[in-house]
Write a structure and sequence with these properties.
Shape: globular
CATH class of the domain at 75-155 and 244-387 and 432-561: Alpha Beta
Number of helices: 12
CATH topology of the domain at 75-155 and 244-387 and 432-561: TIM Barrel
Distance between the termini: 56 Å
Strand content: 15-25%
CATH architecture of the domain at 75-155 and 244-387 and 432-561: Alpha-Beta Barrel
Number of strands: 36
Radius of gyration: 29 Å
Helix content: 10-25%
Oligomer: single chain
């Protein structure tokens, strides 16, 4: 017989067992064991072209999701071959080790700039500081990383220059247009100028006349300078870009093309690809227009009127050009930019032995919406974009664009009341929160901006569609910029989930290259840990056998995603099956912001921003990153569950698993229904990509 104590132990053990089971059940299924909660499905189809086509250029919406206008299954090779990083490492001591770290963790592309200002003033076939460029190229080549060389004319050193120091011999008040220098030798009217007065800007104020020791300036002196002050003066090899119809422009563009040639010659020589059908590098034409681009428009160097549309004519007594009044310099800046792209790629076409296999990207598109795929030369394979996330607090930061509500209706801006919430997330540019969405260029649907066709498939040459991709050539987030008290560990986690979202989302939605910023000493934006950069600079340093302590959370996370994408990969896969999301539902009704209770202004539910990104590994294997596109990455989303019905795959007999790449662990998944061409699963979800793997039964 049992003693009463044994009986008590048995009862307690049974109760403990029941409690454990009840604790585990919620993590395995979407419903609690004691009550039935009705499942709530999204009120609109998961994929609906109207999410984008209802948004004309200049319109915006808090509810519409243009990235849901299309859903595509993408080969995993797009992800694996598209991962890149901006390579800011210069020193020979650590460039090779950093390249080795990047390659080990899945980085296959690297971007760095070789500016026009690095060309020697007297010999334009030579590059100054060419040892830095050689170091980068050799390090990247050794570890199989393809260089993207940025061609740029940053105003700080926009072209070949000669630099001088001169001394002011009389006080000069702010606003004067004449100054006195101790020495005017070697200065050249129209090319020499005072530098770095308001910004890093070579020859910011040009010299338009020299009379004795007196200089006439192209615009008023922006600040007072005392006599005896040493002044920086630069002489530009070429005049700033101006109207394509005049001699100045022709001389400047000819110099630009000599620069393009010199950089290509140098890269081919270092990479030893003279005889190769692929020279082993690509080129991006310009960096971005948000800073440092004054050299593109000569008007910036002269007096501006109040509306900045026309420049007053300076006196040009001794400096006489073909057109003295310079009216042609009012030419639209976009014509100059387009010409630079056209003439650069035309030069490459005319010199095929030097540019075989070299792809070009239009970097002027990085921060503006106007460059269109339909207008690009055939040699341009991509438009560049720099979609850094923007912090916005609504309704305070509501823009002036016309609002579109959840019913696809355009509302009166004067009476529209925006929802209250804040945003900071990597996919911001792919939403409708700004008047132009990156979906307009990277998406599969062709649209127009003022009659010009945009979209991945908008370019037609000789009756044939010639697709134009998007390359994201800079992106990242600096968490410490938004929380000054954030710990290093927390900042690293936020950066990891943000960059995992960048990679999984954009490389699935039409972007074919993503260069995260950056490998190098870049403070809160650095993606290679400082301790590794310090270690790599030690004499005779070799790559550590155990590198986990030196590896950033971003690189660790990306490498885990790469490993999953690479498993059983078929690089010869030609037939891609397009998966569909037939339905998505949840039982929790969680949301990103509250609406006003009307159909036009509902809550933005998490199921409305559930991201489903199918990649195909081989004929029977899929990796699908999924997550909730939360509006603020500084806040974490506790795991929640969604039931998703997927069509287009063989659910019967398929093996299904879910993996968390940040925490390196498997996540429970429930298979609800298996069909011959469908699968219903309940997925535990958070605010960064979990990887759903589906392996069909052979």
């Amino acid at each position: 017989m049992f003693s009463k104590y044994k009986l008590i132990y048995l009862i307690l053990g049974f109760i403990t067992f029941i409690l454990i089971v009840l604790h585990l059940i919620p993590s395995l299924a979407p419903l609690t064991p004691f009550r039935t909660v009705p499942s709530i499905a999204s009120s609109t189809p998961y994929t609906d072209p109207k999410q984008f086509t209802s948004l004309r250029f200049g319109y915006q919406s808090h509810w519409l999701q243009p990235w849901r206008a299309y859903l595509e299954t993408v080969p995993t090779t797009t992800f694996l071959d598209g991962l890149g990083m901006v390579f800011k490492v210069k020193k020979p001591a650590n460039a090779e080790l950093v390249a080795q770290m990047l390659a080990k963790h899945g980085i296959r592309q690297a971007r760095f700039e070789v500016g026009w200002g690095q060309i020697d003033y007297d010999d334009e076939t030579k590059l100054n500081k060419d040892d830095e460029i050689r170091t980068r190229l050799l390090a990247l080549k050794k570890y199989g990383i393809r260089p993207l060389i940025v061609l740029n004319g940053n105003q700080g050193r926009p072209c070949p220059i000669k630099s001088f120091k001169r001394t002011l011999i009389e006080d000069a008040s702010a606003g004067v247009t004449q100054i006195q220098l101790n020495d005017v030798s070697d200065l050249k009217v129209g090319y020499s100028g005072l530098s770095d007065l308001t910004d890093s800007w070579a020859a910011e104020v040009l010299i338009t006349d020299i009379s004795g020791n007196s200089l006439t300036l192209s615009k008023p002196l922006p600040k007072a300078i005392q006599a005896g002050t040493s002044i920086s003066i630069d002489t530009l090899k070429y005049r700033p870009f101006s109207s394509p119809n005049n001699e100045d422009y022709q001389e400047t563009i000819a110099g630009w093309l000599r620069y393009v040639d010199a950089v290509a010659q140098f890269a081919v020589g270092v990479l030893e690809t003279n005889q190769s059908s692929d020279k082993g590098f690509d080129m991006e034409i310009w960096n971005e227009l948000s800073f440092g681009s004054n050299f593109l428009k000569i008007d910036k160097y002269y007096v501006q009127t109040s509306n900045n549309s026309k420049r007053k004519k300076p006196k040009l007594d001794e400096y006489k050009q073909t057109e003295e009044n310079l009216d042609d310099y009012q030419e639209k800046a976009h014509i100059i930019r387009n010409n630079i792209v056209q003439q650069t790629t035309a030069y490459a076409e005319a010199h095929p032995e030097l540019f075989k296999g070299v792809s070009f990207s239009n970097g002027f598109a990085s921060t503006i919406p106007w460059p269109a795929s339909s207008l690009q030369p055939q040699r341009v394979v991509a438009l560049s974009k720099h979609p850094y996330p923007k912090f916005r607090r609504y309704p305070q930061d509501e823009n002036k664009a016309k609002p579109v509500n959840a019913l696809y209706q355009v509302e009166d801006k004067s009476t529209f009341v925006p929802p209250t919430y804040s945003v900071l997330f990597p996919e911001y540019s792919a939403t409708a929160l700004q008047s132009s969405t990156i979906v307009r260029d990277m998406g599969s649907i062709t649209s127009e901006i003022y009659g010009t066709k945009h979209g991945r498939n908008a370019r037609v040459i000789n009756g044939v569609v010639v697709p134009t991709s998007v390359w994201i050539t800079e992106a990242n987030v600096n968490p410490s910029q938004y929380d000054h008290n954030i710990s290093a560990e927390r900042a690293s986690f936020v950066q990891a989930k943000t960059n995992a979202r960048y990679a999984c989302f954009f490389l699935n939605k039409g972007v074919t290259r993503l260069y995260l910023f950056a490998a190098g000493k870049e403070g809160g934006l650095g993606l290679v840990k400082q301790n590794f950069l310090d270690y790599s600079e030690k004499p005779n340093a070799i790559y550590p056998t155990e590198d986990s302590a030196y590896t950033s959370s971003t690189l660790t996370t990306l490498s885990r995603i790469v490993a999953k994408m690479s498993d059983q990969i078929d690089r010869n896969l030609t037939t891609i099956r397009q998966l569909e999301v037939a339905s998505i539902s949840d039982t929790h009704n969680h949301y990103q912001f509250t609406g006003d209770g009307t159909a036009a202004h509902p809550n933005l539910y998490n199921r409305d921003v559930f991201v489903f990104l199918p990649y195909q590994v081989n004929p029977r294997r899929f990796i699908i990153p999924y997550y909730v596109m939360t509006r603020d990455v500084m806040k974490d989303l506790p795991p929640e569950q969604f039931t998703v019905q997927i069509k287009g795959l063989k659910g019967t007999g398929a093996s299904v698993s879910v993996y968390d790449p940040i925490n390196d662990k498997d996540i429970p998944v429930v298979v609800n229904v298996r069909g011959s061409d469908s699968l219903s699963v309940t997925l535990t979800t958070t605010d960064y990509p979990y990887l759903l793997t589906i392996q069909e039964d052979t």
